[in-house]
Amino acid sequence: MLYIILLLSIVIHELGHILAILITKAGVIKRLHLSWKGIGIEWEAENPSIQHRIIISSAGSAANIIVGIVLLLLQMPEYAYINFLCGFLNLVPFLKGDGYNILKLIQE
User: Average of pLDDT values for 28-40?
Assistant: First the structure.
């Protein structure tokens, strides 16, 4: 069951990115792909601003944190913590992760 919840947390994370791309009209989603590195989105940017790129990079973690809060309110703390973990870990500036992208964008 833990693996299913973790997979769902990752899907929620990627859906956050997709929603941000659609809302900001920053590009076109080409495909969602699964690899040994995880799940990712391939999209074609349409000259998004730095602010839009920061929003898009942050949106996956925001989706996880929002879902985590909802799960806490629904008395499902184990599932909430998995979402919080997924959301906050993605904000750490690891090489080529969301946190790294946000840090690079802020430095521009």
Answer: 80
* Of 17, 1, 65, 3, nearest in space to 73 by CA: 65
- In DSSP notation, 26-93 reads -EEEEEEEEETTEEEEEEEE----HHHHHHHHHHHHHHHHHHHHHHHHTT-HHHHHHHHHHHHHTTS-
The encoded tokens of residue 35 equal 């690899």
**Three-class SS state of 97:** coil
Query: What is the distance between the alpha carbons of residues 32 and 14, in angstroms, rounded to a whole number?
Result: 9
User: Domain-by-domain residue ranges, the chain?
Assistant: 2-107
This prediction has a pTM of 0.89
- Rounded CA separation 17/27 (Å): 11
